[in-house]
Amino acid sequence: MPVTGLLSVTLEVPDVEPGIGFYTDAGLLCDRVGPDAQLRCAGQDRPSIVLLGGRPRKRLHHVALRAADLPQIAERVPANGGKLVAAPEGFAEDGLWVEDPHGGLFHLVDCAADAELPQGPEFRINAPGRIVRTRRSAILPRAAYPPARPLRMGHALLFTPDVPESVRFLSEALGMGLADHAQDVIAFCCARTNSDHHVLAFAKSPGIGFHHASFQVADPDEAGRAGRALADRSRRGDWGFGRHTIGSNFFHYIQDPWGSWFEYYADMDFIDDYDLWSPTNYDMADSLASWGPKVPDDFVHNYEVAGAFEPA
């Protein structure tokens, strides 16, 4: 079980200030480090999103993963079309730096798992023949809710020119598992023990790049409230509120300053033992959502390949 979870996504950007504004509006906390910015969830002492400022354009730099048995991974990477590479200038040399067959960069670190999140209030739904909430309202007045604070980053979706090959590399070299996919267009990969339905996912594109990072909130209501509030503040594109078929999570996506996306999610499928899971190949009609608003025209557009994002 080499890869056990997602640690962070690092992006190169021309100017960190728009990103700081966007991600702090989303509920993350910011630490400035020279020209760069580190954005983290409240209660965590490590960043989830790192922005490297002063770069020519927005571009995915690398993804950091928590992993065990690094010597085993080091053996498997070259045998599966990848490379072991030196740490980029200015980055720690701990763990393994790995380049996948398409040039995507991963930093694998053997570190302790995050502490378990505290259990929150149960999300209770009255249903036909099953009344579980009596003598109280499920919804408070709008002003009673504080701004959303994401609990953790759950997963990231990356662009790749060859989805099956990227999945094969994650599986054979990094020890992950294919959870589900839709043809050769999108695929979702999990850790092999006690994993969210997906930790990393891939969508087909002419080149590599970053599509979105997804942050867990307490329940579907908070995903809806937080998504609408961030969309109203950012005045950029959004998609939601809705629910995915693959993974089952409720979602709301908001476009960031460079054309990629930020997702709030709640209620994700969980795979406790990958050996007991059977991946499904879904029709494309189920690849994005079970229900929700119309998908934005550029939702799966890779601006890192096509050129700079020009907000409407």
UniProtKB/TrEMBL annotation:
The keyword Manganese does not apply. It holds the Pfam family Glyoxalase. Its EC number is 1.13.11.2. InterPro entries: Glyas_Bleomycin-R_OHBP_Dase, Glyas_Fos-R_dOase_dom, VOC_core. The keyword ATP-binding does not apply. PROSITE patterns: VOC. Keywords: Dioxygenase, Oxidoreductase. It is an enzyme of class 1 (oxidoreductase). Residues 5-111, 152-267 form the VOC domain. It comes from the Bacteria. This is Catechol 2,3-dioxygenase. It comes from Sphingobium jiangsuense.
